């Protein structure tokens, strides 16, 4: 709470990136959104035309009704009014029908697209665990920022294009009656539809730019304050944390108030513009000797047209408020929106060949590399452990392999193809497993497991859970597989949570299984048993990259790589490494003595 969790991510390792952990900024988020909207363009175009037809029907209704009323005052023969009477009825009915179909078509198109965008955002967050660290912020991205994409289309682009189209038609129609009046109308429409929206945008831009990050920060506060409540209380820091969150909330209220006040002022200006334009049009028409009835038509038509153009003020205001959220979604999707390399067969879950060649990762320019010239060959079926002191670069290696961190130098290939050539959603089928701080969802045991392999049957669930050492516990629960595990697995012990996450990884069974500290939180005896059963449960031909701080249970692995400060300092099999002087032997002797002591003292 007092300090945000350390941000991380591939951005820090790429020269084009912004702050580490934050996706790179995109120059035009709207362009990214439009690219995402491309498959739905025909539906959106249909919605835009329907919106324009609705507005046009409204404008025509006002003009025709005015003509009808003013003409009727002169008591003409009824047959002269029949067409207008029918037109008024038809326009009144069609406006309602058109509005309904426009809403239906617009929402249909946008909701289809949003489903797609949400899935992409979720897949990107899921595939880049380092971005997921800020769960409150991530949640805000998923909820409000994706809604910004929806609002950009429904509340900005569709109404704005409809308003522009109808304004042009209105000026054209007025020009048929009086070019001078049409000129006055055009000026009024330009003020209402261009100058006022630009003014509203300029006045609200700064406040709006502050709004989305502030909402994100408040979401992080909410998560930190609830999840970290016990720790904050233990350190007597609750008051301080609440104060900081309160300060942000008050700032948010001030900004919202300022935006609302500016909005009201611009709305008032809009009403003024509407009245002035109508007056100018009437004067111009009178000066041009236009018939009295048509002057009335022009006056009321002007009021209706300006009101339609004023929708652009709302659209402009919405747009500024949406920009920050749009930028974040666009930046997040920037990499995944890029089309995948074509021509290759999709990657499957079967055996794969992985190669690291001279891989160097640096999180920040000028910082020491987290991985430094790392080489490794992981052919199908090979099991390799990576060990080393804290901060040696082990988790970074896992992050590189799962595609969430990109190397600054060197190359990682899967079946001979660079990892970055795979689509965001494609890689997890081939490479995955148990990453650091695996997330357990507030759902049942079954639902948490099925995330690994949707559609798995009960035997498969039982096999994976047994290998992780959790099956007995599941069977003891009154609700069995349907036991709810609580928020972040809060109703489980640390060890049970870890076993559940491990079972999920085993059920997913990717061809390259990455296990980052799979036995963390288990006592030494349980850790040995779980590691042995996990390795035994891995299908033949599937390779394993095991990251571990414990050196026990590694005797059967094909290779052990010792990392220190990002460099490989030792590599070989367990027996070779314990025989040679170095970090591995020292650590092995220390851990062995400590665990023997623990086992001896156990009741
Ligand atoms: N997201 C990040 N942003 C900046 N630096 C990072 C990030 N993640 C790791 N590092 C740095 O990279 C180095 C390697 O970290 P890494 O987490 O890979 O080590 P590790 O061997 O897994 O450590 P541990 O055993 O403690 O988990 C460390 O110096 C760490 O501070």
What is the chain-wise order of helices and strands?
HHHHHHHHHEEEHEEHEHHHHEHEEEHH
Give average pLDDT, whole number: 83
Bound molecules: adenosine-5'-triphosphate
CATH class division of the largest domain: Mainly Alpha
Number of domains: 2
What structural class do helix, strand and pairing data support?
alpha/beta
CATH names the topology of the largest domain as ABC transporter transmembrane region fold
Give the low-pLDDT segments. 1-25, 336-344
Largest sheet, strands/sense/barrel? 6 strands, mixed
Strand content: 5-15%
Number of strands: 10
Would you summarize the structure shown here?
The protein has 603 residues and is of the alpha/beta class.
Write the layout of secondary structure elements.
Blueprint lengths: L28 H9 L3 H33 L8 H46 L1 H4 L2 H43 L1 H49 L1 H6 L3 H50 L4 H46 L16 E8 L9 E8 L4 E5 L6 H8 L7 E6 L2 E2 L8 H4 E4 L10 H6 L7 H10 L3 H6 L17 H15 L3 E5 L7 H14 L5 E5 L11 E6 L2 E6 L1 H6 L3 H19 L2
Parallel strand pairs: 3-8, 3-9, 6-7, 7-8
Antiparallel strand pairs: 1-2, 1-4, 4-5, 9-10
The structure holds adenosine-5'-triphosphate.
Describe this structure in words.
The structure is a single chain. By secondary structure, this protein is an alpha/beta fold. The protein folds into two domains: 28-337, ABC transporter transmembrane region fold; 354-435 and 511-601, P-loop containing nucleotide triphosphate hydrolases (Rossmann fold). Helix content is 62%, strand content 9%. It has 18 helices and ten strands. It has helices at 29-37, 41-73, 82-127, 129-132, 135-177, 179-227, 229-234, 238-287, 292-337, 394-401, 427-430, 445-450, 458-467, 471-476, 494-508, 524-537, 574-579, 583-601; strands at residues 354-361, 371-378, 383-387, 409-414, 417-418, 431-434, 512-516, 543-547, 559-564, 567-572. The strands form two sheets. A six-stranded mixed beta sheet has the order 6-7-8-3-9-10. Strand 7 (512-516), helix 16 (524-537) and strand 8 form a beta-alpha-beta unit. Helix 2 runs antiparallel to helix 3 (82-127), helix 3 (82-127) packs parallel to helix 9 (292-337) and helix 13 (458-467) packs across helix 15 (494-508). It is elongated. Adenosine-5'-triphosphate binds at residues 6, 8, 12, 20, 130, 363, 370, 388, 390-396, 549. The site of adenosine-5'-triphosphate has 16 residues, from helix 10.
């Amino acid at each position: 709470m007092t300090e945000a969790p350390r941000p991380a991510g591939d951005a820090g390792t790429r020269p084009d990136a912004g702050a580490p952990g934050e996706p790179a900024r995109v120059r035009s988020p709207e362009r990214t959104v439009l690219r995402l909207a491309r498959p739905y363009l025909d539906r959106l175009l249909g919605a835009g035309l329907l919106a324009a037809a609705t507005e046009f029907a409204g404008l025509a209704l006002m003009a025709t009704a005015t003509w009808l009323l003013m003409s009727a005052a002169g008591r003409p023969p009824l047959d002269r009014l029949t067409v207008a009477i029918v037109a008024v009825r038809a326009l009144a009915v069609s406006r309602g029908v058109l509005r309904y179909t426009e809403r239906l078509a617009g929402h249909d198109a946008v909701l289809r697209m949003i489903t797609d965008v949400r899935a992409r955002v979720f897949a990107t967050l899921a595939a880049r665990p380092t971005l997921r660290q800020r769960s409150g912020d991530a949640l805000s991205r998923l909820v409000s920022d994706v809604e910004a994409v929806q609002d950009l289309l429904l509340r900005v682009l569709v109404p704005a294009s409809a308003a522009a189209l109808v304004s042009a038609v209105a000026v054209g129609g007025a020009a048929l009656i009086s070019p001078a009046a049409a000129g006055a109308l055009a000026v009024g429409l330009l003020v209402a539809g261009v100058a006022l929206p630009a003014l509203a945008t300029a006045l609200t831009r700064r406040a709006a730019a502050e709004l989305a990050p502030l909402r994100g920060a408040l979401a992080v506060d909410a998560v930190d304050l609830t999840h970290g409540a016990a720790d904050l209380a233990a350190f007597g820091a609750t008051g301080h944390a609440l104060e900081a969150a309160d300060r942000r909330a008050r700032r948010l209220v001030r900004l919202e108030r300022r935006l609302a006040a500016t909005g009201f002022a611009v709305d008032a200006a809009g009403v003024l513009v509407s009245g002035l334009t109508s007056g100018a049009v009437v004067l111009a028409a009178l000066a041009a000797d236009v018939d009295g009835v048509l002057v009335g038509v022009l006056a009321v038509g002007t009021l209706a047209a300006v009101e339609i153009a004023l929708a652009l003020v709302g659209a402009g205001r919405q747009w500024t408020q949406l920009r920050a959220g749009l930028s974040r979604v666009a930046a997040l999707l920037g990499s995944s929106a890029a089309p995948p390399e074509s021509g290759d067969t999709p990657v499957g879950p079967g055996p794969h060949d992985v190669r690291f060649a001279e891989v160097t990762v640096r999180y920040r320019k000028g910082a020491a590399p987290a991985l430094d010239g790392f080489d490794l060959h992981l052919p199908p079926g090979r099991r390799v452990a990576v060990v080393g002191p804290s901060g040696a670069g082990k988790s970074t290696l896992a992050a590189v392999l799962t595609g969430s961190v990109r190397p600054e130098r060197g190359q990682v290939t899967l079946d001979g193809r660079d990892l970055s050539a795979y689509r965001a959603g494609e890689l997890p089928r081939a490479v995955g497993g148990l990453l650091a701080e695996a997330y357990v969802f507030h759902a049942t045991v079954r639902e948490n497991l099925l995330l690994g392999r949707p559609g798995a049957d009960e035997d498969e669930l039982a096999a994976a859970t047994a290998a992780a050492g959790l099956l007995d516990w599941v069977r003891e629960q009154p609700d069995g597989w349907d036991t709810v595990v609580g928020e972040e697995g809060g109703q489980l012990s640390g060890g049970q949570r870890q076993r559940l996450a491990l079972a999920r990884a085993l059920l997913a069974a990717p061809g390259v299984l990455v296990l980052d500290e799979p036995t963390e939180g288990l006592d030494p005896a349980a850790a040995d048993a779980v590691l042995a059963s996990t390795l035994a449960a891995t299908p033949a031909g599937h390779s394993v990259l095991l990251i571990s701080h414990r050196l026990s249970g590694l005797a059967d692995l094909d290779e052990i790589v010792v990392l220190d400060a990002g460099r490989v300092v030792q590599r070989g099999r367990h027996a070779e490494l314990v025989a040679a002087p170095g970090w591995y032997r020292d650590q092995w002797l220390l851990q062995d003595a400590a665990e023997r002591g623990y086992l001896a003292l156990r009741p």
